[in-house]
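#lab-general

N.A. 3:47 PM
ok so I finally got the sequence cleaned up, no stray characters, all 349 residues accounted for. can someone with queue access submit it? mine expired

B.Y. 3:52 PM
send it over

N.A. 3:53 PM
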Amino acid sequence: MFVAVNPLIPLLLKRQRQGACAALALCMAQLATSASAAELTVLMGDELSAHAEFVQHLRASQEPGSRFEVVRLAPGGAEGAQPVEAAAIEPERSANAGVRTRSLRSSPADTALTIAVGAPAARAALERPGQQPLVLAMLSRLDYESLRAGSPALRRGDRRVGVLLRDPAMADQLALIGAVLPQKQRIGVVATLESEPLVRDLQRAAQSGNPPWEIQLEYAPDAKSLAGALRSVVPRSDALLVLPDLIGDSQAATLSVLHAGAGAGLPVFGASEGLVRSGGLAAAVSTPAQLARQARLLGQKLASGAGSTQPLVESAAPATVRVNVTVARGLGLRLPEERELTERLAIIR
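B.Y. 4:20 PM
back already:
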C-alpha cells in the first residue's frame, strides 16, 4: 500500500513547536522581569553619614527598570515629610508630603518594600498606613527595644516587619575575643540600667562558649559612677568589652573605659570602628555595604511570608573585624590580619 506524505507537514509542526517554545520563553522572561522590578521606598529621618552610605549601596544594587525613591522626613516624623528626593530611575514618579505613591509602571504588590533607615524613620514608618513589607534597618538593639515597648503597630502583627540591627551578635563579639585571646575567659563589662537586653544577649552567648565565658559585670547608673564601676571590674578581667549602649555611644564614657584598660594593660573590644581608632584593640563591626545587602535579603524573606506573625529580627551578619595594630604591639600581641580574623568569624557562624 502506498501512503502519500506531504513533506511540508513535519516542517510546519516543527515551526509550531519552536514558536510555542519561543512564546513560553518570552512569557517566562516577562514574568522574571516583573518579579525583579521591585518597588523600593527608603525613609530617612537623619543625616548620619553611615545611613547615607547605606542608602547609596541600596541604590547601586537596585535592579534596572525598577522603582527607587528616597523620602526624607522633616523633624517630627511622617507628618512633616518632605517631597521625595529623586533617585531618578523612573522620572515619572512623584510623592507629596506623607503620601506614598506608585510609579506609572506598577509592579506586583509582593515586590513592594519599604526600608526605614534609623530610629526616627522607623518610628515614622510604623505610624504610616500600609500593608507592604517593612524593613527597619540600622537600629541598635536598644532602639528596637524602645520601638517594641512604645509602638503598638510593631506588636499588632498586621504587616510583615523585619528588623535589621546595625551591630553583630554578641556571639560574634565573643568569638573575636576568643580568636585574639585564646586562653582568656574573663570579660569585664560596665553597663547602664538601660542595657539589660544587651546584657541578657551577652550572658546567653557567654554560656554557649566552650568553655563558658566568665562575664564580670558592673553597672554604672550615671556618668559619675563609671569610674567606680571600672575600678571594681578591671582587676577581675582579662579584657574589657564596650557594649553598644549609652556608654558605647558616648565618646567621653568610651575614653574612660579605654584609659582604664590601658592603665591595667587590658585589651578593650567593642562594636565600632571609632573605638578601635581611639585605642581599642579590635572590634567586630558591619559596614553599610554589608548591611545594605542584608536588608535586601531580609526584604526577600518578608516577601516570601516570613515575619507575618511577629517581627523577624536579625543581627548584622557577616561581621568585619577591625584591629588597631599599634595597640596590639603595645600589649605584646601578634594578631592575625583583619581579613583572616573576619574569615574566622564567618566560619564560626
